[in-house]
Amino acid sequence: METVDLSRAIWRKSTFSNGNGGNSVIYGELPNGHHALKDSKLGADSPVLIFDQDEWEAFIQGAKNGEFD
């Protein structure tokens, strides 16, 4: 398993997470072109999901198609 350096990630809170009592997904862009997701309510203890570009595009397409509803 590849180790990913998250120290330079640019983290953003999902716009769909606003105003829901602190439950939010945080999205990170990594310098190597990968993407990351974590759960804000878990803080620094949150596990981080890492996606390469192909995986990220498949994840986004799946979300748009309702695969995770």
Topology overview:
Blueprint lengths: L9 E4 L11 E5 L5 E5 L9 E3 L1 H12 L5
Antiparallel strand pairs: 1-2, 2-3, 3-4
What does this molecule look like?
With 69 residues, the chain is of the alpha+beta class. It has one domain (10-64). The protein contains 1 helix and 4 strands. A 4-stranded antiparallel sheet has the order 1-2-3-4. The protein is globular and about 30 Å long.
Entry summary:
Helix content is 17%, strand content 25%. The protein is an alpha+beta fold and 69 residues long.
Question: Which terms summarize this structure?
Answer:
single chain, 69 residues, alpha+beta, four-stranded antiparallel beta sheet, globular
Structural class of the secondary structure composition? Answer: alpha+beta
Net shape: globular
Biggest sheet character: 4 strands, antiparallel
Spatial extent as radius of gyration: 13 Å
Strand order of the largest sheet: 1-2-3-4
Distance between the termini: 29 Å
